[in-house]
Design a protein that fits this description.
By secondary structure, the chain is of the alpha/beta class. It has one domain. It is about 20% helix and about 40% strand. The chain has five helices and 16 strands. The protein has helices at about 15-25, 35-40, 70-80, 130-135, 155-160, and strands at about 5-10, 30-35, 45-50, 60, 65-70, 85-90, 95-105, 105-110, 115-120, 120-125, 125-130, 140, 150, 165-175, 175-180, 185. A six-stranded mixed sheet has the order 8-12-13-1-14-11. Strands 2, 3, 4, 5, 6 and 7 form a six-stranded mixed sheet that branches. The chain has a two-stranded antiparallel sheet with strand order 9-10.
């Protein structure tokens, strides 16, 4: 099976410092597990003071992982166990309201020994073990400091068929074991 890292595209709109501080106060980490999401309020509000007209991406990764309503509805089709908490972003000057969702996903300990790190445990090359993933379509990679949201190939294809804005999908290497005669090699 193929898996992809789902992130915000490089050139999409980023929230500015005052908004980041308010968002960061909502959650103890960027990408939440289901248990942590259930502890949040049902509806959260963030007031933007900047006078922006540019469209925000369907995925916002910092300081909290947020998905647009379009992506939330798609994710719910693939995994009914995900948890979501609403976050309404309101532009102070225009009164425009944007609906995003704080997502809570399962954490999966599926790191391969082939995963490579830079100094200070910064991820260099992500490699996953298929047997530890099972049939999870959407999950958070456990055992690393970075917050990695991973989607299965069918979810990635569905995302690409939608009119989403500012998402980036990067294929993740999988640990493959070949059993031949009396030895096992990993690539």
């Amino acid at each position: 099976m193929e898996y992809f890292l789902l992130t915000c595209g490089e050139h999409t709109k980023r929230l500015r410092s005052p908004e980041l501080a308010r968002l960061a106060g909502l959650a103890p980490q960027k990408l939440l597990t289901k248990d942590l999401t259930t502890k949040l309020e049902a509806m959260n509000l963030v007031l933007l003071t900047a006078d922006d007209t540019e469209q925000y991406a369907d995925i916002i990764t910092s300081p909290v992982y947020l998905v647009s309503n379009t992506i939330k509805e798609l994710f719910e089709k693939y995994d009914k166990t995900l948890s979501f908490k609403a976050l309404r972003i309101i532009h102070k000057n225009t009164q425009e309201q944007l609906l995003y969702w704080i997502i809570g996903v399962d954490e999966c300990d599926c790191l391969s020994e082939q995963t490579e790190f830079l100094p200070m445990k910064i991820l260099k090359k992500l490699v996953l073990k298929q047997e530890n993933i099972g049939d999870k379509p959407i999950f958070k990679v456990g055992g690393i400091s970075q917050q990695c949201l991973v989607v299965r190939l069918d979810v990635a294809e569905s995302l690409l068929r939608r009119f989403t804005y500012g998402i980036e999908l990067r294929q993740i290497k999988m640990e493959e074991e070949y059993i031949s005669d009396a030895y096992i090699t990993s690539t």
